[in-house]
Design goal:
Oligomer: single chain
Number of domains: 1
Order of helices and strands: EEEHEEEEEEEEH
Helix content: 10-25%
Radius of gyration: 15 Å
Length: about 150
């Protein structure tokens, strides 16, 4: 994910839902909320935010699981891997689980959210930490800073 024209591939656990992403993420995150802990069976979820137009999803059609409201968590219908989330409030953006992409090691989280729910033994090397979610008015500055630091 070195420039706007780079292509990154990925897939769910069984490989029946495939991802193809062009360019770099707009931002990367770790979420410590109890919901993410339960859906990942881990301490937090990792995600990378992309413009929806830069993401191609092929193979089996993902199904909605987890939240069924404003947040739509999409899973592989076969292996049930949590692949991505769409949020009505974000508009045409897609939040891909970073671990679904082939080059996960290159996608370190920039911010952490829901730190109030973080397990006490977890340490994540991020630039910004938020007790809940960042306020919407903070996103333009966060996106600009991420773009600058991820060159």
């Amino acid at each position: 994910m070195t420039d706007e024209n780079s292509i990154t591939h990925g897939a769910c656990r069984c490989g029946q839902v495939r991802l193809k992403v062009q360019g770099k993420p707009l931002m990367t995150m770790a979420c410590h909320c109890k919901g993410c802990q339960r859906m990942t069976a881990s301490a937090f979820s990792l995600s990378a935010l992309f413009p929806e137009a830069s993401v191609e999803i092929t193979g089996l059609d993902p199904v909605i699981g987890g939240m069924h409201g404003e947040l739509k968590h999409n899973f592989c219908p076969h292996c049930l891997s949590w692949i991505f989330t769409r949020a009505d409030m974000l508009g045409p953006l897609i939040n891909i689980r970073s671990s679904m992409l082939d080059h996960t090691a290159e996608i370190a989280p920039f911010i952490e959210t829901c730190a109030a729910e973080k397990l006490p033994w977890v340490t994540v090397p991020v630039r910004h930490s938020y007790e809940q979610f960042p306020p919407m008015e903070a996103f333009p500055a966060l996106l600009a800073e991420f773009a600058e630091t991820s060159r």
